[in-house]
C-alpha cells in the first residue's frame, strides 16, 4: 500500500522538520516546470496532498489511525481460511492492487472528513454552553417562582371593565381592569372574561415575577372554583421544556450536529420566553 509517507520518501516516525525538508526536496524535483516526465503534474499533486496531511498534526493523527485500522483489518482478513476463485487467482495483480488502493483511500478520506466535521462543530461548543447556561438560569428562576406561588385573601369584586378606554394604550386592548374591595388587577380577557361584579375571588400569585397562574372565583356562600390562566399554562410548558433542553446541553459534551441543533432550539425557546416576559403576557 502506497502511503503519503512513501510519496515523500520518509519513515512514519519522521518529525515535522523531516517532513518539511522532504517536501521541499520532492516538490523541487517533481515540479512540472522542472521535471520532463509525463506524470510530473500528477506526481506533484500527490506530493502536495501528502504534505498538506502530514504537516498538520491533527490530520496526520487521523491519517495514521486510518492506516493502522486498514493494516489491522488486512491482518484479520488474512488470518481467515479463504480460497480465492479461479477468476481472482488469474486476475491482473495491478487491477487487484488498484482496487484495494481505491478502497483504502476512500476509507482514509472518510475518517479525515469525519474528524473535520467534529472540529467544525467544536467551534460552536462555547456558544452552546452560553445558551444552555442562560436558558438554565432563566428557566430555574421561573420554576422556583412557580413552585413558590401563594393564594391571596378572598376579595369582593366591585367593578370589571375594559382597560383600553381608560388608558388608550394599545397594549391594554385585550385586558380588563378588575377592581376589588382591596386591589386593582390588570388581567387578560382569556383569564378574566368570566368575572362579574359581586363575585368573590382569590388570586394566586408568584413572589418573584408577580405572575398569576390561576384565579379562584365564585358566588357568595358558594365554594370557589379554580380557573387556570391559559397564557401562563402555555408559558409554563415552554419554560420547563427550556429547562430540560438546557440541562441536556450542559451535561452532554458531545461535539455533534444534534447538540448544536439542540442549542439552536434552546436559543429560540429562550428568546420566546423572554418575549413572553417583555410583552407582559404573564400577569
Primary descriptors:
283 residues; Helix Hairpins; 11 helices; 3 domains; seven-stranded antiparallel sheet; single chain
Largest sheet composition: 7 strands, antiparallel
Which strand-content bin applies to the residues? 5-15%
**Unreliable runs:** 80-84
- Can you identify the CATH superfamily of the largest domain? DnaJ domain
Radius of gyration: 35 Å
What is the gist of this entry?
The chain has 283 residues and is an alpha+beta fold. The chain is 59% helix and 13% strand. α7 (125-147) crosses α10 (230-251) and α7 (125-147) crosses α11.
Please describe what this structure looks like.
Helices cover 59% and strands 13% of the residues. It has eleven helices and seven strands. It has helices spanning 4-8, 16-30, 40-54, 57-79, 86-89, 93-122, 125-147, 164-167, 189-192, 230-251, 257-278, and strands at 150-151, 155-162, 175-180, 184-188, 200-205, 214-218, 225-228. Strand 3 (175-180) and strand 4 (184-188) form a beta hairpin. Helix 7 crosses helix 10 (230-251) and helix 7 (125-147) crosses helix 11. The longest helix has 30 residues, at 93-122. Residues 80-84 have low confidence and may be disordered.
Topology:
Blueprint: H1 4-8, H2 16-30, H3 40-54, H4 57-79, H5 86-89, H6 93-122, H7 125-147, E1 150-151, E2 155-162, H8 164-167, E3 175-180, E4 184-188, H9 189-192, E5 200-205, E6 214-218, E7 225-228, H10 230-251, H11 257-278
Antiparallel strand pairs: 1-5, 2-3, 2-5, 3-4, 5-6, 6-7
Helix pairs in contact: 2-3, 4-6, 7-10, 7-11, 10-11
Amino acid at each position: 500500500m502506497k502511503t503519503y509517507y512513501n510519496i515523500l520518501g520518509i519513515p512514519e516516525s519522521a518529525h515535522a522538520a523531516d517532513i518539511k525538508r522532504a517536501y521541499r526536496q520532492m516538490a523541487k524535483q517533481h515540479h512540472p516546470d522542472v521535471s520532463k516526465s509525463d506524470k510530473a503534474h500528477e506526481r506533484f499533486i500527490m506530493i502536495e496532498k501528502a504534505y498538506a496531511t502530514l504537516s498538520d498534526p491533527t490530520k496526520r493523527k487521523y491519517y495514521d489511525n486510518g492506516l493502522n485500522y486498514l493494516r489491522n483489518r488486512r491482518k484479520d482478513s488474512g488470518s481467515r481460511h479463504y480460497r480465492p476463485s479461479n477468476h481472482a487467482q488469474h486476475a491482473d495483480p495491478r487491477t487487484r492492487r488498484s482496487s484495494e488502493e481505491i478502497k483504502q483511500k476512500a476509507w482514509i478520506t472518510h475518517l479525515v472528513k469525519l474528524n473535520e466535521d467534529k472540529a467544525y462543530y467544536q467551534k460552536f461548543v462555547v456558544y452552546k454552553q452560553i445558551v444552555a447556561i442562560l436558558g438554565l438560569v432563566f428557566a430555574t428562576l421561573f420554576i422556583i417562582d412557580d413552585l413558590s406561588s401563594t393564594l391571596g385573601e378572598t376579595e369582593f369584586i366591585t367593578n370589571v371593565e375594559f382597560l383600553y378606554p381608560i388608558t388608550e394604550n394599545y397594549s391594554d386592548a385585550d385586558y380588563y381592569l378588575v377592581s376589588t374591595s382591596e386591589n386593582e388587577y390588570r388581567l387578560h380577557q382569556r383569564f378574566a372574561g368570566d368575572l362579574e361584579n359581586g363575585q368573590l375571588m382569590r388570586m394566586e400569585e408568584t413572589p418573584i415575577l408577580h405572575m398569576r397562574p390561576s384565579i379562584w372565583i365564585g358566588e357568595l356562600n358558594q365554594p370557589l372554583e379554580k380557573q387556570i390562566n391559559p397564557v401562563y399554562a402555555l408559558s409554563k410548558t415552554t419554560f420547563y421544556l427550556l429547562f430540560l433542553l438546557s440541562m441536556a446541553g450542559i451535561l452532554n459534551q458531545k461535539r455533534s450536529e444534534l447538540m448544536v441543533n439542540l442549542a439552536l432550539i434552546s436559543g429560540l425557546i429562550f428568546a420566546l420566553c423572554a418575549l413572553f416576559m417583555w410583552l407582559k403576557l404573564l400577569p
